[in-house]
Amino acid sequence: xxxxxxxSMSAAAGALLCLPRAxxxxxxxxxxxxxxxxxSVVPGRGYDNLLILIELKGxxxxxxxxxxxxxxxxxxxxxxxxIKREQMIHLDERTALHPALQPLMxxxxxxxxxxxxxxxxxxxxxxxxxxxxxxxxxxxxxxxLRDGWLTRAFAMKPVPFDFAADGVVIxxxxxxxxxxGARAIALVNRTQFxxxxxxxxxxxxxKTAFPDGAFGNSIKTAMQVLAASDTLKITAAGRAPMEQSxxxxxxxxxxxxxxxxxxxxxxxxxxxxxLQHFAQGMVAMQAALVELGRWNDTLVMTYAEFxxxxxxxxxxxxxxxxxxxxxxxxxxxxxxxxxxxPMLARLDGNGNLPVGVDFRQIYATxxxxxxxxxxxxxxxQRFEPLPLLRA
Length: 391
Hints:
By secondary structure, the protein is of the alpha/beta class. It has helices at about 70-75, 105-110, 130-135, 150-155, 215-225, 265-290, 360-370, 375-380; strands spanning about 5-10, 15-20, 50-55, 65, 90, 95, 115-120, 165-170, 185, 195, 195-200, 235, 250-260, 300-305, 325-330, 335-340, 355-360. A hairpin with a 5-residue loop joins strand 9 and strand 10. It is globular and about 55 Å long.
């Protein structure tokens, strides 16, 4: 019998979060309540622990990514774009992955891939621009903050001066969570960037093979940044070099962007291609991080402005919705299913899923257990970290 349990989280949304099956009780129908703060205690190692953020820009369709196939409402809501049961990758008796995510299965089987379901925030805003601002600043939906949540973290505890920079943003000119104060650079592509990024000469060659396309190229650039960390120099536009010598330490954060998730029409093929790019990129990233000796001190995390509506639209696509699942991986990740599975019988008045996990709980996991910072001060409220990490 598979083991499962639940714990109570004192988050802003007051959500119920499923503990991973490895920690659950023997009876799958019994609820065993635990204090989440005791479920995973991992001492932070500061900014020697790397964070890689992957923005799924446009809002990923969670229901076709992590599929609640055992719920008959799934196929009632998605008569045309629902994934056929025989095609999906089953994780347990009720949950499956989109078939394009097959490359992730070695990570799942090795228990280095965590999937947090039901992630969002209270009183969600369905504007791309406002909602990503909420995620970038870690604000409430009715609160307007200027600084990115990582900018506030680095203001509280600065990244050591022998790091080349606080962070590098690759594939987008938007600074996002590093906005308004962080020592960071935005590299749009190899020839167009905000500021100057100088890698070692020659650029370090990696044995890892990277997938084709913009996302694969972004991952390759990110890994070259890490490989060149001993001679990496970054110059912000109009400023002196941020650091003359990085002494073998590069950056604390890398943010990558995978575009195209605003799938209002003809979603099936588009979404499958996007998830394939994502999965292949994650596999290449893991291989490169292992090659560089960084896999065990790297945490990779997805985020997006929102998910999609459960009901397909008339254009065989999905419109802006609320919650979505997110992926967390790394050598010290406690892989399993977390959070609140989609409850399709409990849609709100607008036909959207209720929030199960406040996204700032994931941020609190980064700030507290991963980096050893005071997450409550940075996030301006207490959010319980999730038990995603191993010591």
